[in-house]
Design goal:
The chain is built from 9 helices and 8 strands. It binds zinc ion. Zinc ion binds next to loops.
């Protein structure tokens, strides 16, 4: 069995200098590959360095809503250059965050749209962060060309949003939230999400799944996210591993 964590921050502070240790722990839980998510210039650089250093690590780079206010031509030129480097497999994480509102909302929307265009020009998928902003995220995606796919990272929507986004070329990445007892909307969407349209992630070091909730998250724990979905769907862990592995390899074009 092999599982891929398609969105994790091995580039974040708690893992620095201990990357090998956490990759070994992941392997012991059948987690054999991971995609390290960038979000700002520092995290983007770090994600690429990890992908260069470890065979089983890939990278995505982008300007997340928090730093959308810093996006300019210089930033864009560097981003485009980084997106074309080996093992950079997606543009992300990018999107809208109306909870923290670190950048003005119109700026968030403009920078999100611009990056979706860049991903399309480079024939790459887009990894999307959306918080308290499903409505505007949907509007933007509906009007975008998503020929190369988009992934809603840490998808916490219920069946209604699932069905709306399913009409677009969008994939649903479930995090540890799907294992939380009270996340009943997310349980319902995980039960019915089509087998060829979902993936699993940790978003580590955040959103630790049961049974480790309250402790620091790590890439290996995507194993428990996959288990939670298997339980909800009434299928085996092996089956969830197999389909999410195939979906992730296909959408991100992993070798
Ligand atoms: Zn993230």
């Amino acid at each position: 069995m092999e599982i891929i964590d398609n969105h994790t921050h091995l580039n974040d502070e708690p893992f620095r200098g201990k990357e090998e240790y956490y990759l070994d722990r992941a392997k012991s839980l059948s987690v054999t590959k991971l995609i390290c998510a960038g979000q700002d210039p520092d995290f983007n650089d770090r994600a690429i360095k990890l992908a260069q250093r470890f065979d089983d690590v890939y990278a995505m780079v982008g300007y997340c809503p928090d730093v959308a206010k810093d996006y300019n031509q210089v930033a864009e030129d560097k981003l485009i250059e980084q997106l074309q480097m080996p093992k950079v497999v997606a543009l992300g994480e990018v999107g809208l965050d109306y909870y923290w509102d670190e950048s003005p909302r119109d700026v968030q929307r403009d920078v999100f749209k611009r990056q979706i265009e860049i991903a399309h020009e480079l024939k790459m998928p887009v990894d999307i962060h959306t918080r308290d902003a499903f409505e505007d995220t949907f509007k933007i995606l509906k009007d975008s060309d998503l020929e190369y796919g988009a992934i809603l990272h840490n998808f916490n929507g219920g069946v209604d949003w699932l069905n709306k986004f399913l009409d677009l070329n969008i994939y649903f990445s479930y995090s540890g939230v799907v294992s939380f007892t009270k996340a009943t909307d997310v349980h319902e969407s995980a039960k019915v999400v089509p087998m060829d349209r979902f993936m699993v992630e940790t978003d580590a070091p955040y959103l630790t799944p049961k049974p480790y909730r309250g402790k620091q998250n790590e890439p290996g724990y995507v194993h428990y996210v996959a288990q939670a979905i298997a339980d909800l769907k009434g299928i085996s862990l092996g089956e969830v591993a197999k389909v999410t592995y195939a979906n992730t390899v296909r959408v991100y074009g992993l070798e």
